[in-house]
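INPUT
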Amino acid sequence: MAGGKVATGVEGMTQQGPPRWMDRLLRCSLPARDREAISGDLLEEYLEEQAPRLGRMRANLWYLRQSASFLSNRSFGGPPMKAALTWMSVFVVVAGVWLASMENILKHAGYGERTAIAACIAIQGLATLLVLFLDGRLAFRALVLVGAASLAIFGVTAIKRMLDAPHFEGFVLVISIALIVQSVLTFALMLRTRHRGTV
Amino acid sequence: MAELLGTFEQATLLAVWKLAEEAYGRAILRGVQSALDRQVAAGAVYATLDRLEQKSLIVSRLEEGTPVRAGRMRRYYCLTAAGIKAVNESRAALEHIWQVAKWPLESKV
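OUTPUT
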């Protein structure tokens, strides 16, 4: 085992260990119970094995991959409802970005307002992902719940308008249903779980 | 017979057993990689350790961290009697299954 490099605290870690933001990302993706132990294990492995063997840049990539493995295990290996909400949030983000992009390419009348709505949809999806994995603070969760309620209202309104419209638009129906499902899942999961730092 | 363990769970439990007093996260990760002869994501190993602990096949304790890990605590793992029994049963089950055939299997077609 390679040795010699010793981190002597937070400052030492930022000088010799992985970048501070990577360490924060890892720690945020870990359950509170194992935050110290697991981040310590990976820091030790980084300093004693990966960085001397691979160099800093590739060692940083290694560290990032390990952090991602915790995120994926916590999301897709966790309770089914959390996995469903994760997938749905990712879909909502992609849908929001796609809608905003299309509005800006086509530039039909009123596209500015619709772009803003699409951006809000994407932001709500992102905020839900943040609450799921990074920040469980009560105020932020409340904000996400308000956003989820707005999504549901928007989804129902969009379906109603589409049914009244002369022609059927499949993508509006799909995205609207996704918004409603996202909203229901957000309420079900966040009201069910107690505040524990992360959902 | 209790629920049989998967290959990854067996590799993890055997790494904990082999490391004995030195069985903490990083050492177990390296032990599992060595046993399976491939790179393994840390998240998969810790998730397995968590699951095994919930099944009471291992127990863990926290101990002081070393300076190289910025003083962060180490979590040490230890097999319980139920853990040892589960590993033994898994091995026995595998051997029982293989009694009907000679390894390596040859095509009958």
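end of record. Confidence is low (pLDDT under 50) at residues 1-14, 194-199 of chain A.
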